[in-house]
Amino acid sequence: MTAPLYAKVKEHILGHIRSGAWTPGMRVPSENELVETFSISRMTANRALRELTADGFLSRVPGVGTFVKEPPARSSLVELRNIADEIATRGHRHTAHIETRETIEASAALTEEFELRLPAKLFHLVMVHSENGVPVQLEERYVNPFAAPHFNEQDFSAVTPTGYLVAAVPVDELEHTVEAVMPTPDQQALLDIGEHEPCLALHRRSWSKGHVVTVVTLTYPASRYALHSRYKTSPSGTLSQ
Fold first, then answer.
1. What distance in Å separates the CA atoms of residue 38 and residue 32, rounded to the nearest whole number?
2. How far apart are CA 6 and CA 190, in angstroms?
3. Which of 51, 100, 110, 213 is in Cβ range 3.0-4.6 Å of 147 for a Cys bridge?
4. Residues 150 and 183 in one domain
5. 0.85 cut: is pTM over it?
6. Residue 161 maps to a domain
7. What does the alpha-carbon distance between residue 84 and residue 93 come to, in Å, rounded to a whole number?
8. At which of 68, 87, 119 does a domain end?
9. Are residues 188 and 160 in the same domain?
10. 21: domain CATH number?
11. Can you give the residue range of the structural domain that contains 138?
């Protein structure tokens, strides 16, 4: 079965992007140029560009042109990775600011998550991490003072909470849960996103010597970040030991 014309145009453009011939920020042929090159209708050219834009490969600027879109940044799904280091490896600038830093009484839900017998005090931190000035991660973290008593004294402009905790408290067990969420109005404001922008929420617990050290939810705008993992498996698909 012959592929429709718009699909052939899409594959032509994708081929150049995947090969690296067209790099992020590079202008791609306009609708008029595609019409002339492929002898197709303007409607067909428009559909190809529109669908590639919706799929996240292109960015269209009205009155200016259509450009190859920078792929979303990626964060490890299963490892404890410092977002500042991830951003630095891309040659970009990491900044962060603290929205909330306080000590709270654990709610019933947090008491259960921290596996405490009775409600206790917890450190609570809310931070926004940005890449080249664009918010990419909202961090809401609770920390057990018994495990990390000096956590709330740290200058988190010099070291991220993850970086500090990894250095201060050896981690021997991790738990991850990821879900797609629609952010609250407060989260939308902190991440500078629209009300219909979905997010990825990574909920993580970490243990050290049998105690839950921290419970954190990392919320990422779906259009700006992706979560990934890669690991070796047995022939049957189970994790290798």
1. 10
2. 39
3. 213
4. yes
5. no
6. yes
7. 8
8. 68
9. yes
10. 1.10.10.10
11. 73-228
pLDDT in tens, 20-61: 889 888 999 999 999 999 999 999 999 999 888 877 788 888
Q: Is residue 172 part of a domain?
A: yes
Looking at residue 158, what is its pLDDT? 83
237 in a domain, yes or no? no
Among residues 52, 68, 84, the one where a domain terminates is 68
Classify residue 233: in a domain, yes or no.
no
pLDDT digit string (tens) for the chain, length 241 residues: 577 889 899 999 988 988 888 988 899 999 999 999 999 999 999 999 988 887 778 888 888 889 988 766 655 555 557 888 888 877 889 999 999 999 999 999 999 999 999 989 999 999 999 998 999 999 999 999 999 999 999 999 888 999 999 889 988 899 989 999 999 999 999 999 988 899 999 999 999 999 999 999 999 998 887 776 665 666 766 655 5
